[in-house]
Amino acid sequence: MNLDFSQIVPSIPFILEGIGATLKFVSVSIMFGLVLGTILALFKISNKKWIKLPADIYTSIFRGTPLILQLMIIHYAIPQLFEYDIPVFLSAVLAFGLNSAAYVSEIIRAGIMAVDKGQIEAAEALGVGYKPMMMNIILPQATKNILPALMNEFITLTKESALVSTIGYMDLMRRAEIVGAQLYRNFEPLLFAGIIYWVMIFILTNIGNWLERRMRKSD
Fold first, then answer.
1. What's the angle, vertex CA 149, arms to CA 144 and CA 150, rounded to 5?
2. Are 136 and 4 in contact (CB under 8 A)?
3. What is the percent of the chain where pLDDT is above 70?
4. pLDDT by residue (tens digit) across 147-196?
5. Residue 69 CA to chain centroid, in angstroms?
6. Is residue 142 classed exposed, middle or buried when 0-12, 13-18 and 19+ CB atoms within 10 A define those classes?
7. Helices H / strands E in the chain, number of each
8. pLDDT in the model for residue 1
9. Average per-residue pLDDT for the chain
10. Are 67 and 95 in contact (CB under 8 A)?
């Protein structure tokens, strides 16, 4: 087999710089998706159709179209439509954040619906307002039930982050592709990038398992 990993050794620092770039936009996207997803979930459980319907339409659109298409539309269509040269980082955050929010909203909605309705009725009988009831009673309980699903969504988002290389964002994948093009050897840098992705996912998975164990102990 024509393999020579020694050739990529000088480029390893360049590839490793992509870890920070990847984690930076993934972290911002996760926070954006979590906040927006929570708001959408609250809209979906509302009895008011004018609130519920837009949230359902939003989820249908972002779950029903490919993430790569959403990324391309945001990055290339916004400059065409609004004459705004959107930065690559902002394109990545918007595409991944908006997409993640659609999935997170369904996860949180399911978690809220799984909470015993008797607790909602008891809170209402005691005169607890909707906002404090959700923040202090319902959402904390729902979080324990949906944590595994949320961690799985974050892990998926981290793996799919490699798609941003298609718009030129200098993430881990993009840097591995550049090294491969410069050396005319693609397997070695791509395999090295793959190992780094696996390590990041392994760490995220263990963090999720640790959080789940802590929450179970707090019951």
1. 80
2. no
3. 97
4. 888 888 889 999 999 999 999 899 999 999 999 999 888 999 999 999 99
5. 16
6. buried
7. 10, 0
8. 62
9. 88
10. yes
Q: Where are the beta strands (DSSP E) in 21-65?
A: none
Residue 45 identity (one-letter amino acid): I
User: What is the SS3 assignment for 204?
Assistant: helix
* Per-residue b or e along 183-206, where b marks 16 or more CB atoms closer than 10 Å to that residue's CB: eebeebbbebbeebbeebeeebee
Lookup: tokens for 80: 């065409």
In the chain the domains, ranked by start, together with CATH numbers, are 7-217 (1.10.3720.10)
Alpha-carbon span 148 to 131, nearest angstrom: 25
In angstroms, the CA 180 to CA 193 distance is: 11
Distance between CA atoms of 62 and 98, rounded to whole angstroms? 8
Q: Give the burial class of 41: count Cβ atoms within 10 A of its Cβ; 0-12 exposed, 13-18 middle, 19 or more buried.
A: buried
List pLDDT tens digits, range 23-79.
999 999 999 999 999 999 989 988 888 899 999 999 999 999 999 999 999 999 988
Per-residue model confidence (pLDDT) at position 69: 95
